[in-house]
Write the structure tokens for this entry.
Amino acid sequence: MSFDYRELIDPVFFSRLESIELRARSIVEGSMHGLHRSPYLGMSVEFSSHREYAPGDDLRHLNWKLYARHDRLYIKEYDADTNLNLYLLVDASASMGCANAGRSKLHYAASLAAALAHLALSQRDAVGLTLFADSVLAHIPPKAKAHQLDEILATIANCVLQPATGTEKALHLAAGLARRRGLVVLISDLFGEPEAIARGLDHFRYLNHEVLLFHLMDPTERDLAIDGNIRFRDMESGETLTTQTEGIREAYQAAVNQWREAIEVECRKRAIDRVELVTSDPPDRAILDYLIKRAKAF
């Protein structure tokens, strides 16, 4: 599956994002000093203030000149400036090719990734990409260089979807590539057992990343809102099943709702924001709504 990645770059929408700053809830590390002011105090080029010495403080930060003048010990404090490392994890399993609503889940995921990457890069943050199915298919380390957005979007647009039986292994491998703490954004349909997916997410949380999950579904997958004698094809295995949708819709919806709730519960346990989206929703509206909600929370 491939498409022209340039169609994902919407200058009008991107301009609406400019006033919203994407931040991680927790302290993040960066290779450059920049726009993100850490709430933690540590060594930096920017002096902040003094406070009185307390037992256990690092003696290297004592201000001996103040001690000479006032005969009291004071510690120098510094504001630590950090940049956000944004890790975009995009599911490239075969099921992401589903396009009953006219737009495939992969294309929708690419639109979300484009918006988030543009926003982060406009703040001089580092953005990287990992494509995965059963394993890691492609990886671009986080950087804040000029052409990083083009490289990320071209990689998604030209990827070849792969069959997958689960995401846990791939998430563990991706976590090993996210070496600096930051914000991990997983964009996936999450087909698989919720407990197995949760174990993969645990790896990121263990490494002190903040995790944001965009859970994508095709409206037909979620609601089975079609009638008649329909033949379904599993996009992962290729198996087919012909059935009368009216006869199975109620049980199907109950099973899907139970699965969705199980994923939501696992995310709540780990303080992971899960944003459920269907591909019939405009992606620009979906991402803008979430970022506004997120900005108000800080």
User: Anything to note?
Assistant: Confidence is low (pLDDT under 50) at residues 24-45. Residues 36-82 form one domain. The chain has two domains: 5-24+84-296, 36-82. The longest helix spans residues 245-269.
